[in-house]
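Good morning,

Attaching, inline, the backbone tokens for the sequence recovery test we're adding to the shared suite. The designed sequence is right after.
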């Protein structure tokens, strides 16, 4: 699920200049990114504050609850599972996103929503995901109140992306995303309103993956959680 200012006129996030890069902040040590270290961090979390919790609104609609799966695939190097949404979708088309979506009334918890949506979107069976915990909610400019659910994903899981929603499925090293030297800050003004967000561009072989907006904001909060 992606959530970023896609309805702003003449807006291409890739063309917005970089305001700053946080090279002064330390990367999360690789020893803190192992499965056992991640489990322990959620068992005994530190005192910390999320850095990004609320985007400036750009849509006049009622708030809606949603959840996404911040899935860490346990390969030789831990990898974060991400999707590229199809171009024909009515909202956030073509954007990089976590699997996830709107909560249903019968969902028992954000974890239930995230796992259900992940199975619907990318074919990830719940039995292959070990939920570690839930990060603080992130409110998007499109009025989604998103709960990021962090889970460890078995490397031998079989994925089957829904072609209607998912144009591509890919993975990015967790260490890359947890290094602020790869976190770019952007500032954009439209209609007298200044908006700020992070981006984390990643070169995936011959493909350039532009991670930005809410997806990047939730990853930034995850960095704050792991580095606290």
């Amino acid at each position: 699920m992606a959530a970023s200012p896609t309805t702003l006129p003449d807006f291409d996030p890739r063309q917005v200049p970089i305001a700053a890069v946080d090279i002064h902040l330390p990367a999360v040590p690789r020893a803190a990114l192992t499965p056992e270290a991640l489990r322990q961090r959620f068992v005994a979390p530190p005192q910390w504050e999320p850095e990004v919790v609320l985007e400036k609104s750009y849509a006049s609609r009622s708030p809606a609850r949603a959840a996404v799966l911040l899935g860490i695939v346990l390969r030789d190097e831990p990898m974060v599972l991400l999707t590229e949404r199809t171009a024909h979708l009515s909202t956030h088309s073509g954007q990089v996103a976590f699997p996830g979506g709107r909560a249903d009334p019968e969902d028992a918890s954000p974890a239930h929503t995230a796992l259900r949506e992940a199975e619907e979107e990318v074919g990830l069976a719940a039995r292959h995901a070990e939920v570690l915990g839930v990060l603080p909610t992130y409110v998007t400019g499109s009025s989604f109140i998103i709960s990021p659910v962090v889970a460890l994903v078995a490397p031998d899981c079989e994925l089957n992306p829904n072609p209607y929603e998912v144009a591509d499925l890919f993975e990015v090293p967790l260490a890359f995303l947890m290094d602020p030297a790869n976190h770019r800050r952007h500032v954009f003004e439209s209609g007298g309103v200044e908006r700020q967000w992070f981006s984390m561009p990643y070169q995936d072989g011959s493909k350039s993956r532009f991670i930005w907006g809410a997806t990047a904001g939730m990853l930034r909060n995850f960095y704050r959680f792991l580095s606290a």
